[in-house]
């Protein structure tokens, strides 16, 4: 049935499957277009001139058509949702003919947002993986940057109580507070850092083989005697140290001291990362069994470094 009035066009029951927008190009005066009971499966923005879609007093009657409620109908579904008052008979008489899961259901049940814009699970997995990787990298960078602040905080938490230790100065057996085993190539650090802090700032008496062992006699016996007359034995480890035969001997002496049950006398200072070829069985045992601390250029790390050494020196 085709019927046309001044402001309304009726095209009902005509088995119309498709209409091109240019048919109504010059009929912008239309207020109502009736296309009910045809075989329209899809309506898009080219179906009518733009002026009609945007005309606020224009009404469309396309009920009882076999709509294919898929993504190709998304534009019309969005339009009708925003212009419900202009769609005559909506939503009761706008019925989906396909797909199967929406057949005989109202067009209003078709949600183009969830149906047509589903996120690929691989994309979700990729974004999740990238997010987790970013968190891991960010956390690693933060831990690397603030590791000394974190270590210092943990150190403070573990040592909240005042130590209250007194240095052992009255026992005539000990001539030194600590024997320092080090390689001569590390002399600059020993003098500028260790001696300055422990001897000048805290008045500990250290035994340095270059300075305090009198030449003459059997060197090994002199070393043994100096270690024996020191309350503590501190090994300053570096790759230079691990290459030196005398330093290896002093490491062996430290291992014997540990085996004799005097591990409380031992302490390790790591000046740098020790190369894997230098990490022998004796050193592994020492690192696992006795306290050690790592030198760093970080100011917070240095504060923890010296507090740890002072605690060791004050511990009887």
Please describe what this structure looks like.
The chain has 316 residues and is an alpha/beta fold. It has twelve helices and eleven strands. The strands form three sheets. A five-stranded parallel beta sheet has the order 8-7-9-10-11, sandwiched between helices. Strand 5, helix 2 and strand 6 form a beta-alpha-beta unit. Helix 5 packs parallel to helix 12. The protein is rod-shaped, with a radius of gyration of 44 Å. About 3% of the residues have low confidence.
Major β-sheet strand ordering: 8-7-9-10-11
- Rounded mean pLDDT score: 83
Unreliably modeled segments? 161-170
**What's the helix count?**
12
List how many beta strands DSSP finds. Answer: 11
Global shape: rod-shaped
Structural class: alpha/beta
Order of helices and strands: EEEHEEHEHHHEHEHHEHHEHEH
Largest sheet: number of strands, sense, barrel closure: 5 strands, parallel
Q: Strand content of the residues, in percent?
A: 5-15%
Radius of gyration of CA atoms, rounded to a whole number:
44 Å
Helix content: 40-55%
Terminal-residue CA separation:
110 Å
A few lines on this structure:
The protein has 316 residues and is of the alpha/beta class. It contains 12 helices and 11 strands.
């Amino acid at each position: 049935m085709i019927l046309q009035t001044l402001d309304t066009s009726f095209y009902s029951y005509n088995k119309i499957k498709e209409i091109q927008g240019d048919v109504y190009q010059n009929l912008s005066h239309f207020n109502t277009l009736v296309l009910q009971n045809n075989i329209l499966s899809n309506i898009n923005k080219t179906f009518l001139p733009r002026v009609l879609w945007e005309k606020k007093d224009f009404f469309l009657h396309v009920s009882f058509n076999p709509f294919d409620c898929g993504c190709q109908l998304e534009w019309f579904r969005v339009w009708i949702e925003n212009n419900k008052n202009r769609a005559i008979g909506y939503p009761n008489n706008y019925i989906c003919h396909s797909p199967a899961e929406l057949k005989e259901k109202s067009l209003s049940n078709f949600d183009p947002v969830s149906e047509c814009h589903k996120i690929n699970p691989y994309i979700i997995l990729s974004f999740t993986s990238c997010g987790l990787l970013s968190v891991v990298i960010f956390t690693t960078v933060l831990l690397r940057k603030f590791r000394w602040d974190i270590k210092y905080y943990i150190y403070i938490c573990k040592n909240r109580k005042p130590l209250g230790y007194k240095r052992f100065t009255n026992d005539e057996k000990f001539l030194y507070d600590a024997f320092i085993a080090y390689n001569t190539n590390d002399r600059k650090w020993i003098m500028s850092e260790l001696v300055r802090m422990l001897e000048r700032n805290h008045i500990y008496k250290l035994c340095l083989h270059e300075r305090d062992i009198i030449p003459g006699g059997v060197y090994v016996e002199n070393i043994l005697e100096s270690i024996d007359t020191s309350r503590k034995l501190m090994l300053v480890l570096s790759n230079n140290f691990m290459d030196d035969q005398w330093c290896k001997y002093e490491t062996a002496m430290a291992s014997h001291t540990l085996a004799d049950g005097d591990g409380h006398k031992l302490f390790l200072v790591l000046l740098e990362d020790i190369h894997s070829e230098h990490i022998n069985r004796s050193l592994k045992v020492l690192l696992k069994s006795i306290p050690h601390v790592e030198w760093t250029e970080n100011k917070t790390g240095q504060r923890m470094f010296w507090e740890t050494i002072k605690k060791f020196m004050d511990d009887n």
